[in-house]
């Protein structure tokens, strides 16, 4: 006996429920292909309904795109925090910055990326919490595509995983990031370390041997300091102190890896860059204190430099 059209409608609705964006459109197209192509009668009405749903879904995904959730880069590098709901991302962000963030004990407390600035080694870095990235995100479930877009633009990624949570939470998130073709420098924050049982951290480390794993607790300042060091390394940034007439001039400047003395000069002022013939170096890249080097000398993290004009 053929199914009633009412039942058929219910089945169609069930098939598309919870699906968003391209995944929803794909399913609707499949359904359309399965429906008999009558021009009139109940099947024609069903077809019309499915077609309207396709249009609707398309319009909705266009809206998601226009309502961009891109996060403007601030500071010397942008680092995205990503992980399952309740992994402790907001708490870390909160502990590392001055920005007040609502912290919830349930999933999806935060729905949009939340940026915050943190000062590390005297340099401001931007941290961005990517909320609610769930399985199916790369198929745009839960608005995942826009969130992954933020991740794609970040300079580096911190995967966050509750040190005691089942590994699937981490595996799911990493799979979505990989499915979206995003490949950034990354570390793993093993969160809520204060609640860890002996062996928890080592067990997590053993499951992801390819990643640097940093245990951290939002309520333990010492672990937060170590975590900041890890963030700095992750950013790849170089911190260079400026000297004038043999005197340090204050806050260091941050430069990307591979930066040269000429890049340091350019960071000060374009006229300094034009006049720069080289520099004097104290620190890791100097063979001896105050070494005279050329414009193309590659600086290292922690160098102090006096530009020579
Ligand atoms: N004991 C402990 N609890 C934490 C820690 N970090 C987060 N939590 C708790 O875990 C829950 C989820 O934290 P939240 O930062 O909102 O996670 P998010 O969903 O990843 O942003 C909250 O109840 C937090 O209080 C931590 O370092 N130690
Ligand atoms: Mg959060």
Could you name the key traits of this structure?
309 residues; alpha/beta; Rossmann fold; Ubiquitin-like (UB roll); six-stranded mixed sheet; 12 strands; 38% helix; binds guanosine-5'-diphosphate; binds magnesium ion
Walk me through this protein's architecture:
The protein is α/β, with parallel strands linked by helices and 309 residues long. It folds into 3 domains: 5-66, no CATH class; 78-235, 3-Layer(aba) Sandwich (Rossmann fold), CATH 3.40.50.300; 238-308, Roll (Ubiquitin-like (UB roll)). Helix content is 38%, strand content 20%. The protein is built from 10 helices and 12 strands. The chain has helices at residues 5-16, 21-34, 42-66, 89-96, 144-153, 168-179, 200-207, 221-235, 261-268, 270-275; strands at 78-83, 114-120, 123-130, 156-162, 186-191, 213-215, 238-244, 247-248, 253-255, 278-282, 291-294, 304-308. The strands form 2 sheets. The protein has a 6-stranded mixed sheet with strand order 2-3-1-4-5-6, with helices on both faces. Strands 7, 8, 9, 10, 11 and 12 form a 6-stranded mixed sheet that branches. Strand 4 (156-162), helix 6 and strand 5 form a beta-alpha-beta unit. The longest helix is centred in the N-terminal third of the chain and has 25 residues, at 42-66. Mean pLDDT is 88; it is low at 105-109. Residues 83, 85-91, 103-105, 109, 191-192, 194-195, 217-219 line the site of guanosine-5'-diphosphate.
